[in-house]
From TrEMBL:
Cofactor entry: a divalent metal cation
Domain Endoribonuclease YicC-like C-terminal: 174-292
Family membership: Belongs to the YicC/YloC family.
Pfam families, per database record: YicC-like_C, YicC-like_N
Keyword terms of this UniProt record: Endonuclease, Hydrolase, Nuclease
Protein's UniProt name: Protein YicC
Residue ranges of coiled coil: none
Endoribonuclease YicC-like N-terminal domain sequence ranges: 2-156
Amino acid sequence: MIRSMTGYGKKDVTSQTASVTVEIRSVNHRFLEVAVRVPRSLAQLEDQIRKTVQQRCLRGRVDVSVSVHAAGGSLKTVQIDQALAKQYHVALKKLQKGLGLKGTVDISLLAGFRDIVSITDEPVDTEHLGKTVVRALGGALTDLEKMRRREGDALVKDLHAHLDAIRIAKSVVADRAPELAANAFGRMKGRIEALLQTELPDPARLQQELALYADRSDISEELVRLESHMLQFDQTLHSKESVGKTLEFLLQEMGREVNTIGSKANDADIAALVVRMKAELEKLREQVQNVE
């Protein structure tokens, strides 16, 4: 069954040292594009995450976000350079005395110097944490796939509804098609007779030319090809492969046949049915844009 390119997945996995959250969002895109955001300490996992997503998603813009929290608190620590702080303190006191300045050199002043107080990442077991990220990624991808399948099921129902509407209109056109050639033949023959208003110069040749003209109004081949494309479209909807591009191609071919029917038929009733089929085809195109 087809899958939508729109979906969301999230998974939390907690180990002894840290808890990992992986969120995945996907939207429609012509090709597969994977964007990965991970903490700086896990930058080496980006390629592995991207390859894992590529194995399970075939089309769409997929955004993967990984966040890590220490099991007992933060993964960052505050570092204080006391020796440097003492040097600052001595230098500032000396400056205060030399310039005769008032005030005190206190902790709030010293804390403003970035080289005295700094925040660093705690060393982490990247191998163990990497395994936790991979587990969380697998769970998030499973959730994403479930949602994309649910969306795909809804898409299939809607696509079938529009396809059925086209079939109904096509059936009415097919019922009227046998009359088109005869009507075209009769109209042209009447015009010629009205223009000449005399005995026809070569009735046999005229009949032949009129028959060729009427044959140009025959839409039976277009109706057969349209039905064939619709059947392929229907069958493709039940494929387990990525079918979005195939469906787009079939819609393009269906549109070509419908346009030809409209131009050849030269009939007001069929023209109205062609407009109806084109409207349904446009709705199909909009929905197919989100099929993986």
